[in-house]
Amino acid sequence: MLTETTTQQVKAVGIRPNSSILSVLSHLNYKAWYAVAEFVDNSIQSYLSHKDALQALHGAGFKLKIRVWLDQANNLIEISDNAAGIRGVDFPRAFRPAEIPTDRTGLSEFGMGMKTAACWFTHTWNVRTKALGETVERIIRFDLDKIVNERLEQLEVVETPAGVGDHYTVLRLENLGKKFPVKRTQKKLRDHLASIYRMYLRSGEIELYFDEDREPLQFDEPEVLVAPPYSTPTALPVQWKKPLDFQLPNGRRVWGFAAIRKEASTAHAGFALFRRNRLILGSDDESYRPQDIFGNSNSFRYQRLFGELNVEGFEVSHTKDGFRWDDLEEEFLQVLRDNLRDGVDLLKQADNYRARPTKGALQSVLKKASSSLAADMTATASDVLSISGLSQEAYLASARSEPEPTLVATESKFSINIDGQLWNVLVRTSIDPAITEWVRVAKVENSQLDGMAVRDLTVDVSMAHPFVQQYIGPKNENAELFLRLAVGYALAAEKSNRAGHPVTIAMHWFNRLLRESLAKGGNSDGDS
Description:
- By secondary structure, the protein is α+β, with helices and mostly antiparallel strands.
- It is built from 16 helices and 21 strands.
- The strands form five sheets. The chain has an eight-stranded mixed β-sheet with strand order 1-6-5-4-7-3-2-8.
- The longest helix has 27 residues, at 359-385.
- It is elongated, with a radius of gyration of 33 Å.
């Protein structure tokens, strides 16, 4: 049975000193999910601080339930919980700016989280709360414009009778205007909250609901790679996950795990860094991927390595979206890198493992690609391939008249021994739009060197070709693929010519198809 505690009457709350500072909080560099997380932190801390009393009242199976509700029609966000509420004795501290809590070991440690986040969203907000064991509900309303303009030093608290066993807090952010999350931000808000509170959600004792969802949020757990080591592909498969636990100076400790994703992900690989079971750095698609460990964004390691690390002994920013490393981040990364390589080397496996594409992974992509290909070929290939009267001699004459590229991007040389003949290959890439063909063997010269036959070849590859521009990617990430294919095709064609199987005309038609049929891409579904 719940014992009634002494209910302290609260008529008003002082908001000095310097309450006007609240008016500038809307200009902080917050993100919506970190702002909402401040309210969720308060709910969780209230539950943790009064867990025994809540379980004594409701039984060991009691669950904390928090809901983040978006009301677009009324331009507001509401965050409600069934935690222990805000006691009367705590009201002055809870609502006075920069009033640091007496206990800073939990999720509420700066005395600014709720006020900062609420004022970032809007100038008008209110809190309605009922503390466990007390007999009144309290409401306090903030109107920042009124507070500043009238230089208010305290705010009225309205008390109404309530049941001793009731307990809840409802925070309402009103008149959000442009701060109301658009659809895209709503999805990110949902995903980031699930990421930030994943450890609490996994425990099962806390349920976090978003908007009208009937089921609580769940963190989408990445599947860990199970495969043989890249160096011994016929060996037995192993799970590529390892525990980590190491010390840094001044009693600082880092522990958790690192692993390799089964499915590579440019957006969601990387580390998530926690303190006190709450994510601080590396939420959802903003994971922590320092270049010292992950390399460039196009590397396999960048897309596969992930993990969760608990970091204790470091302070966090007042918005709880980063650590204050005290010049120790470089040492932290060095020790982390050493641990990732020690024993089971996750970095080498992530760098060198290549997954065979599965039917499921390729099916949707290839289905769309096949449809697009069929549409483009049907529309143009008949005309392209039906042009008659082009003899090999005519083609050779037209090829010789193709201008030398003037906008050469790169030149590289290599030599290979082919059937006792030395081939010196010069590969030129150009960004010259005047060049018609994607790939051609531009020049061939034969000579002798110390009795060995020498063949000097120049291979031109046009990176300004419409086929390349269509598929090279927004960050030119497929440039190397095009270069390798072009050089491979050119050398194979030259080898065939030398063996008496001319492919000169075939190369002509190949280049024409690329330019006039295959460079269109993606038009079958109406996209431009």
